[in-house]
Design the sequence.
């Protein structure tokens, strides 16, 4: 699919992903009248570098709809424009895990290209902390064939009851093999946040205004939660856990985090 929407004096943004994601992001991008979206869809993630090369000379910013095509493209190419991807958050995980539970239960899952910490945290919040998780972590950019082979083996050996994947092409092949699976896709809010980041990164916007956004964060009921801990060691571990989660969030925004002490950042 090749789709271009021409808007006068718009900031051209190249969006690369599977065709289904192109349809999903077409609505959120309309909320950004400054953007002129130029969309390119692929059948396989390996096509991402070629599509990125085609767009890089004509757009001000590139946005990949997932981390895998982003990694493949950035490892093979050097970009002179900002390049972003849409991260997968807990909200999307809730949706996918709910669907998997309906399909085959959550007794044991084979997982790829998705943060292990995010999956564990979400399962714990859902009361499914005993779920067995098997991860493909041999390579940061595994091929489609490697992932399909891995998940198929786990399923045939009875090591998993379903698969959670970040790649649409893998999900499609597993479905053909009658292996229960869910393709984890970004939510509309994930798309909006990523489009906001992309907009702020463009040279056009930078030339119009220099801006900085400062946020103040306070952890609700931190004192009460800390009092429930059995020792100062546990309190310090709680602080480290909170700090780590905030660092991950701030990193996704290309920002900086400063601890003001206690429960304030």
Sequence:
């Amino acid at each position: 699919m090749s789709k271009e929407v021409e808007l006068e004096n718009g900031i051209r943004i190249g969006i690369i992903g599977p065709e289904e994601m192109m349809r999903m992001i077409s609505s959120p991008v309309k909320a950004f009248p400054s953007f002129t979206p130029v969309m390119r869809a692929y059948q396989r993630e390996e096509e991402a570098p070629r599509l990125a090369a085609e767009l890089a000379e004509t757009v001000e910013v590139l946005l990949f709809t997932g981390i895998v095509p982003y990694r493949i493209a950035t490892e093979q190419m050097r970009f002179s424009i900002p390049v972003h991807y849409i991260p997968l958050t807990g909200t999307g995980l809730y949706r996918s895990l709910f669907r998997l539970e309906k399909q085959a239960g959550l007794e044991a899952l084979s997982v790829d290209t998705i943060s292990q910490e995010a999956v564990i945290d979400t399962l714990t919040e859902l009361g499914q902390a005993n779920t067995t998780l098997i991860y493909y972590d041999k390579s940061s950019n595994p091929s489609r064939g490697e992932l399909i082979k891995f998940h198929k083996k786990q399923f045939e050996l009875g090591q998993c009851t379903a698969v959670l994947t970040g790649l649409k092409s893998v999900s499609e092949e597993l479905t053909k093999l009658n292996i229960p699976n869910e393709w984890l896709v970004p939510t509309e809010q994930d798309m909006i946040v990523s489009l906001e980041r992309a907009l702020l990164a463009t040279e056009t916007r930078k030339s119009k205004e220099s801006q900085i956004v400062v946020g103040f964060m306070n952890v609700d009921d931190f004192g009460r939660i800390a009092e429930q801990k059995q020792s100062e060691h546990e309190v310090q571990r709680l602080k480290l856990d909170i700090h780590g989660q905030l660092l991950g969030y701030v990193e996704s925004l290309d920002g900086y985090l400063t601890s003001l002490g206690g429960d304030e950042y």
About this structure: The first helix runs from residue 19 to 29. The beta strands are 2-4, 11-18, 35-42, 61-64, 83-85, 108-112, 132-136, 162-165, 181-183. The first strand starts at residue 2 and ends at 4.
